[in-house]
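tl;dr need the bound structure. longer version: we got a ligand (FE2/S2 (inorganic) cluster) that a collaborator sent over and nobodys looked at where it sits. i said id run it. heres the input, straight from their email, havent touched it
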Amino acid sequence: MALNYSKKTMKHFLHPKNIGEIKNPDATAEVGNMVCGDQLSFSIKVKDGKIKDIKFLSFGCASNIATASVMTEMVKGMSLEEAQKFDWNEIVRKLDGLPQQKVHCSVLAVEGLREVISSYNKNHPEIFAKTKAKKSKTKKDINPKVKK
Ligand code: FES
């Protein structure tokens, strides 16, 4: 049975973006799906709280490659906070849909993204704390009912 992949998915599968490993990365992570056995590994470079570069290696299916490829393009330049909230539905939309049985590939890509960000935050607790402090300060500034 042939799966009905969109043109965009085929393009990212045949010519993936951001494939490889970053030299001297700020963080790395590996994730896998126990059911299908596919895996992804990610490496990132972070500057000023934003994803300056992100690369991936795939040990998986065509959709595994395509979803990781398009996701890395979409999250490059995002703040770590934004990227942590990135949703797999955005990948599916960007690829003009995925066959139902391949939607989990986009979920795995996002799991990898969250894992590599989490690994970065663990290695850089001082930056994470700064971001949290800034965020809570902003909340107080926006909401006058919150006592300072
Ligand atoms: Fe499992 Fe693609 S079939 S990630």
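gonna send this back to them w/ a short note. DSSP finds six helices and three strands in the chain.
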